[in-house]
Amino acid sequence: MAYRRAMIAIMVAASTALAGCETSDVLSLKANAPIPEDVRSFMSANGMTKSSPIMVRIFKDEAVLEVWKQKDTGRFVLVKSYEVCAYSGKLGPKIREGDRQAPEGFYSISKHLLNPKSSYHLAFNTGFPNRYDRANGRTGSNLMVHGSCSSAGCYSMTDESIAEIYAFAREALSGGKQDAFQVQAYPFRMTPENMAKHRNDKNFEFWSMLKEGYDHFELTKIPPKVDVCGRRYVFNSLPEEGEFKATAECPPMTMPTGLATAYQSLQSKQAVAFQQAVAAMEGGSAASALQSKPASPLGNLFRGSSASASTQ
């Protein structure tokens, strides 16, 4: 009898210890997992440290999440890509609570949006709805990037992948160089060919707006400054007077001269590429498409932003 009581006591003690480990030590371990050694070696060889700022891009149609990090030159470089294990809904933005759509747009992730105790292994909240979403009456809550490979409006990763992504975020936000990192969530890579492919989609105008920010990053390799006015995104611009207000008409604004010139040049080239892609899809010639079709919406994006060049 005494032996039996002793064994029961040992089992109870062991169970208690395991429970304590699960609720504290295990949670601490996964939330503090280091950045993998091979990634640290790549960063060291490319002028980055673990505390260097990061940026994240997500592409729905490819089911890819990219982590970019800032080099000592100030520009960002792709460090690692991860497969998105599952995302909810289809191509297109989230509109309302319960539509099971994963969001698209530009989001800012600060430290308080990290969740080391997520029931989906680890997670960070996208911050949906942002200023643009709220200005356009879009609703939703708890839109995450998380583990467990299960999604209901979120971007879901494997537990192994989210542990690495979380480590990037944790180290960047605790490094003192970045208060928040940008997440750019797209339906697809915003090339002229992909825009042509989706030219008849009801979300084309929204995606054309996202493409402005996408192109700014492609030109500069620096996350764009994002504001909202007139219920639309504006990028790398400053109001000539007053301030940007999400639901008010956009004021006259300025953009750095070099960027404005480079962006206009890119848009001209991409307008041609867009029309050529449309012609190929419709079985016509590129020359006839350029002569017979109206100017591509891609060629009007810069003018639509109401931004003028400046020497800032």
Question: How would you characterize this protein structure?
Answer:
The structure is a single chain. Residues 2-24, 286-297 and 301-306 have low confidence and may be disordered. Helix content is 38%, strand content 21%. It is of the alpha+beta class. It has a five-stranded mixed sheet, with helices on both faces. It has helices spanning 2-31, 37-45, 131-135, 159-174, 192-197, 204-220, 257-282, 286-292, 301-304, and strands spanning 54-59, 64-70, 76-83, 86-87, 105-110, 114-115, 123-125, 144-146, 155-156, 180-186, 226-229, 232-235, 238-239, 253-256, 307-310. A hairpin with a 5-residue loop joins β2 (64-70) and β3. α6 packs across α7 (257-282) and α7 (257-282) crosses α8 (286-292). It is globular and about 55 Å long.
- State the helicity in percent bands: 25-40%
**Alpha-beta content class:** alpha+beta
Describe the strand arrangement of the main beta sheet, using strand numbers. Answer: 3-2-1-10-5
Number of strands: 15
Strand content: 15-25%
* Order of H and E elements: HHEEEEEEEHEEHEHHEEEEHHHE
Please, how many helices?
Answer: 9
Residue stretches low in confidence (pLDDT < 50, at least 5 long) are 2-24, 286-297, 301-306
